[in-house]
Write the structure tokens for this entry.
Amino acid sequence: MHPRDFSLDTLLTNCAQRHAQRLATVDGTQRLTWAELDARVTNLACWMLSRGIAPGDRIALLLTDGAPFLTTLLACGRIGAIAVLLNWRLAPAELAWICGDAEPAITFVNPRFAALLAGAEAGEVHEVDEAHAADGVFETLVAGSHGSVRHPEDLALTPERPFYMMYTSGTTGKPKGCLQAGSAVAASALGFAQHRGFRHDEVLLSVNPLFHVVGMQQVAAMLACGGTSVFAGRDDDSAAILDLLHREGCTTTSAFPTICFPWATMEPVRGGRMPLTNYTGGAGMGRPQMYEFIEKEWDARVVGGYGQTEICGFATFIDYPDMLEASRSIGWTLPHVQMTVLDPDGHRLPHGEEGELALRGPSVMLGYWRNPEASEAALGHGWLRTGDLGTMDDRGRGYLLGRAKELIKTGGENVYPAEVDAVFAAMPEVADAGCCGVPDRKWGEAVKAFVVLKPGQTLTRAEITQRFKGQIAGYKRPRYIEFVDQLPRDPIGKLLRRELSARPVTPDQAAG
């Protein structure tokens, strides 16, 4: 069958039939088999239909990760409603704007987030007890049948129907609702599972928010292979997450440095092994010392990758040995994805030339919700234009150079922030670093670096400048250096360079 013939609902139905008594989810003390999850999804879908929800209506989810989130999401897909995945890290005004744009008919919310909805036009609001105890309202909805003139099986739904919306971070203005079809999410999940060789005995440690595409793609891949999703609690610390990993026999996760680094002091290897494949975003952009430590000291596998919300998650992967060979590469595409490099007019460039990375395949978004201009700009040339600058080598590997809007132009020369960041990544005294462009009277722009030192380490601006000599061209070296306690990053660790560029430049920050 073609990937477009599938949706997450067809994958769920297949798991309920083929792996009925195998575990689908582990969420605290609640353990659901695939048959149980499927039945709860049907019950909730019937309840939605009884409330008058129709295909195309929006259902907002302001929920912590776990079985209720997954059940509600899948119930939306079962009746053709569009799940709007709300980020509970946003401010009330930001959520209000999104709800005003999406116009949800119903919102499911955890009690702890109820205050965030104040002033938001969120439709009919239903609180979901985070403990989802047997006497909770949500349990009543998913455990019993509900009278309705319609049943999900009576609806003629196609896999290409819109399934969910994730709102982008809004780095270029107001956030945009990225609209994905059920077939796109399924294609991404199937491609991911196929590439990594997942089987029904795979056990995912889910630590990334499901309102984000990284967390969603991981859990969707478990539906593709019949594996188990083990959800870490929102309030779990690193020790609790590590204990959960071993207790449930987790075999894979997508853990970023903020999670991995604390484990280094907690004896993560138990019984002689760390049974884990770890996925990290931005291959070639991270800390090489961390990757080496995980591979050698923990005997766990590291896999890097690159992707976007607009293509349902990771589009490329690269294994650790290939990282050593091509340290700046983001690797090769997943089976269902094609990649190329385009010039500003949308023409494909030959290998080795720099341009805008572009992707296509069945997991590309339908477009942006109620934003035809942005949709045309992203999809108008037959490719998803990522907004990322990059290149490809003659083996088909991609290389990420940075966001087009983050390109630094100094004295007529282009500086890709990733090139500067990579020099800092090799410095043993540096815990984290990032750079951006700042106004410069002589050169138009100059490179400014922000550096976080490891505890007990010292490094002067003059020493940093000396380290850069011989590594990259002089015009790429930081002209200003500011030492900070931490860098602003989003929930998955992506550096927020726009916030850095807004900080003042002072004479004492001049590099030595």
